[in-house]
Write a structure and sequence with these properties.
alpha/beta; 6% strand; globular; 22 helices
Length: 499
Amino acid sequence: MPIKVTKIFALLLITIFPLIILLSNLKRFYYSCINANDFSIYQQAFYEIAAGVSWNPYISIRNLHILSDHIDPAIYLAALFVKIFGFNGYAIITFEWLWYVGVFAAIFFLGREFLFSALLIVFSRALLDGLEFPIHPTTWSMLPSLLLFYFIAQKKEAENLWWILACAFSLCLFREIYPFMMIALGCFYCFKKAWKHTVGLWLIGLGFSFLYFVVRPKVLGPTIQYGQGVVHTLLSEHIFYFWRALTTANIPLKNFVPLLFPLALILYWERTKERQSWRTLLHHPITAALFFISPMLLLHILANYFVHHHTIPMVVPFLSIIIFSPLPLQLRAHKRATILISIILFTFIFTSSSRYTKMVKVLASNVSQCEMSKEKKENLRAFQLFLKEKTQLYQGTENAITTSGVVPPLLAPRMQLYQITDVTKILPAFDYLIMEKKAAGDIYPLTWQEHQVIEEHCKKQASALLFENRHYLLLKGPITDACLGIRKRWPLETALLPQ
């Protein structure tokens, strides 16, 4: 392919496909088709921090303070972005998308074959799974994770010590599992007898672990211990629980399988071309990546939870090694380059095409499980106007319990919106009940059958029906548990609940 044509194709590639992701999410938000989990949990945190309400705001959507949930200081950067560009979902979605754009910038300036690398990023199923489910700091961590393994993959690894430590430090700001992953990566360097790397990574990992799991509970009070149940069961049932978890884990092979062939090629060529022994390859960056992902992989196998953004930290290190290794140049020089490149790209495209198909349908034809229509948007505007004029919700002096899909477009600083979910604390009574009507939004974790029962019972209990159109319903309280009938599969610790 001529150089000019290649450059034009690459430009179209990195413009069209990322824009499809961005625009489909923006459209979903515009038509109130994004669920409050995890979107509005972080949305409310960004709004409260940016508005100066609190540096550790109470999140009514999740019924806890944000730092009692996951600990990810990167949220303060998002809050700054919201403060500059506005308190709206469009700014939040764009903020997350810019981390994805940053990955393209990194491979453009640091990579060997930009077009090949861009194709791998564009058609990585793991990245698409995360981006399609906004918003979460784990998704943002794709960029520092990519850079970490860029520096690890360089032959002058010792000279990159401070860059490696800087990336490791920054990653620990995105999720509380990363400190454990740094300790595991430090074990790899201990195996290599690279003592400076070992000590540096262990200090970072242990330091953040102490801060997050010892200091944080003492300063902020009780926190959600997501892995506590898994660890307790593992200690009580031992190998039987691990074997059962391993054999029943629903691992998304589409996220991992496309990586296997290019990684195998890297090992094969380094074994044959450079005449390395297999023992030497134990020091390879691929081994570093295996050490790195081991804590997260183990945790998610035991919890059997691999959806949405959760595989990004386990896939990006291997993507980085493929992109920044000599593989792209070796593929071009190989006499069967076209066949090898085609196999690699086919597996990536095949496993991710359904995601783009779904996004294009959202953009082109409004095909979605959630209605996208002009009438719905007009009804939403009328509903928002009514809430602002006839209630004190936007002043923060009244509260409402709501279904999930209507929260993102309504939310504003100081609002007390409680979500009808398994983890919502039931107040003695709510001032209002806000509900979407059939097909108007994404009401997970409720089913439409449960939704109908709640609507029927709460209409009988409510003191007044204040607003109703084809898409939205507003009932005046008191609204109590007697009509809500909320399930309690995942009760929070009592100490976490606001007094």
